[in-house]
Design a protein that fits this description.
Helix 1 crosses helix 5, helix 2 runs antiparallel to helix 5 and helix 3 packs across helix 4. Helix 1 links the parallel strand 1 and strand 2. This protein has 7 helices and 7 strands, in the order E-H-E-H-E-H-E-H-E-E-H-H-H-E. Strands 3-2-1-4-5-7-6 form a 7-stranded mixed sheet, with helices on both faces. By secondary structure, the chain is of the alpha/beta class.
């Protein structure tokens, strides 16, 4: 069954993920589509991915991976990338993580928030990573926290106000995808974005071909959306009884 197209009647989105490279493994081509439409997308990386390269010490790896993510974002038209500098590999779901993400939501005031799959497994059954699970769950809660004046009230200084304008949370890579987007025209931009993570790819313990990987993923997404290449999302509405 072909998935319905994801809504595109918005102007600003915030993408919150655990690591540099999380968005590039399948979502960046969709982001390129939206920035080409004139929409604004802001990236927030909860960690700097400093524990992600076995052969490079975290003190060196963190700044390297941040630089790669900034270049990667620019390849798909994203100018703002923030890093929360929480510890890579040991994120825990809880109030502290919700607090950090709620502040970013309040600062950027998006209509759409994008995050990564936080189920226990990826589509196809591969084990998900703990940081992804913690970040996705905390993001889902933080968008509602951000609108409540009496939650994390200490953040509301220097003109910062609650923000209840998030309409939906979109979960990339979810095994329970509900919507899709055609990324045929922006597939190459997504590939260029992933290819910016040279140090990370070179540090993998197995051979990884970015084009081969994204072609397979994009083709599967295209089958779900009735296009050559596509990206799928689980759309979670914040209202009761509707998608809005």
């Amino acid at each position: 069954m072909t998935l319905p197209p994801i809504p595109e009647d918005w102007t600003k989105a915030l993408a919150v993920v655990a690591h540099p490279d999380d968005l590039e493994f399948g979502t960046a081509a969709a982001i390129a589509r939206w920035t080409r439409q004139g929409k604004e997308v802001v990236y927030c990386m909860v960690t700097s991915g400093e524990a992600g390269i076995d052969g490079i010490h975290p003190e060196e790896s963190g700044p390297l991976r941040e630089a790669e993510e900034v270049a990667s974002a620019r390849a798909v038209g994203v100018d703002t990338v923030e890093f929360l500098h929480l510890p890579d590999g040991v994120l825990e779901y809880g109030v502290d993580l919700r607090r950090a993400i709620a502040q970013v939501v309040r600062e950027h005031r998006p209509e759409i928030v994008i995050t990564i799959n936080f189920a226990e497994s990826f589509p196809g059954g591969g084990l998900n990573q703990a940081d992804h699970i913690a970040t996705g769950r905390a993001t889902l809660d933080a968008v509602r926290d951000a609108g409540n004046r009496w939650v994390f009230h200490d953040q509301l200084t220097d003109g910062l106000e609650p923000w209840s304008g998030v309409r939906q949370v979109w979960v990339a890579g979810s095994p329970d995808a509900t919507h899709g987007v055609d990324t045929t025209d922006t597939f190459d931009a997504g590939l260029a974005s992933l290819s910016e993570h040279r140090a990370y790819i070179d540090g993998l313990s197995w051979h990884f071909d970015p084009e081969e990987f994204l072609t397979g993923l994009g083709t599967a997404g295209g089958e779900a959306t009735g296009t050559r290449y596509g990206t799928t999302f689980e759309v979670i509405g914040l209202g009761f009884g509707s998608d809005d």
